[in-house]
Amino acid sequence: MNSTLRRTLFGGCAAFAAIAALTLPTAQAEEEPPTALAEVFRDDFDGGAGTPPSDANWIIDTGTSYPGGPANWGTGERQTYTANADNLQQDGSGNLTITPRRDGSGNWTSARIETQRTNFEAPEGGKMRIEARIQMPNVSGNEALGYWPAFWTLGDAYRGNYWNWPGIGEFDIMENVNGINKVWGVLHCGTAPGGPCNENNGIGANRECPDSACQSGFHTYALELDRTGGDEQLRWYVDGQQYHSVSESQLGAETWANATHHGHFILLNVAMGGAFPDGVAGHATPTDATKPGVPMVVDYVSVQQS
C-alpha cells in the first residue's frame, strides 16, 4: 500500500513527449505518449502449475455474492465462483487461468479474484496506469453465448459496504461478451438509474483488437487516470492505442472526485450470463450450445504511478 514513487528524469521525459508530439505523423495521434511512471504493483503469476494466485496479492471471491451484498454479484450472473483449481490456477508457465465449468446438471462455476490492496490511485497532479496482458476465452459464435470476461476496478469504499455503487466509481478496463471480437471500456459513476454516467450502462466505447482477434491471442489492455492537467481524464487503451476517454468536465467536479480521487482495487473474473449493459452489447444467457472449459489467460497485471 505504501509506494516509493520515482520522479527522476520526469522533467526530461515530459520535454521529450512535447517534442515528439510536434514531430510524430498524424497517423500516430492515438498512440500512447511516453510517461514517467514507476511500477508500484506487479504480478506475473509465476507460481507452480495448479497453484492459486499469491494470497499476498489476491483475494479469491467465492459463492454468488459478497456477504450481505446484492445477489448474483449485482448483475444477474449465473455462475458460482470457487477457489477450485479447475476454475482458478497458475499454469506453471507464467500465466493465470480462469476457466468456466459446467456440471452434468447444467450448473456453471468460474472464478473471480480481487487485489488485497485497495489504494491504487493517481496522486493529485500525477497519473496512474493499470495494465494487463490477457487472452480472452478463445471461443466465438453460439459456443461463446454467455461468456463475460472482465478486467476492472472498484472504488475502495465498496469493500465491506457493497451498496454504494456506482458513486464510488468503477473502471472497466477490459470487458467482452459472447466472444465478439471487441473490447469494451466503461466508466460507472454517480447514481443509478440514469445520472451523469447513464447508469446502468455507464459511459463506454468499444473497438476491435488490433492486428488479431481479441480471442485468438494475447492483447494488452490499459487504463490511465491523468490528473496532471486542468481537465482530468480517464483514457482506455488496447495494445497501446487509445479508443475511449472521459473527462472531469463531462461529469462535474463532485461526481468526478467521488469516482476517481481515492483508491481502487483490481478484479479479474469470467462471469457466465448476467446483465452486460443492454445499450452496449445485449448479453446472452448461456445455452446448451455454450462450450465450457475455455479459460481467460492472464500473463501479468501491473500498476504504475507518477
TrEMBL record:
It holds the Pfam family GH16_XgeA. Residues 87-108 are annotated as: Disordered. The keyword Signal applies. The keyword RNA-binding does not apply. It comes from the Bacteria. GO terms for molecular function: hydrolase activity, hydrolyzing O-glycosyl compounds. CDD domains: GH16_Strep_laminarinase_like. Residues 87-98 have a biased composition (Polar residues). Keywords: Hydrolase, Signal. Residues 1-29 form the signal peptide. This is Family 16 glycosylhydrolase.
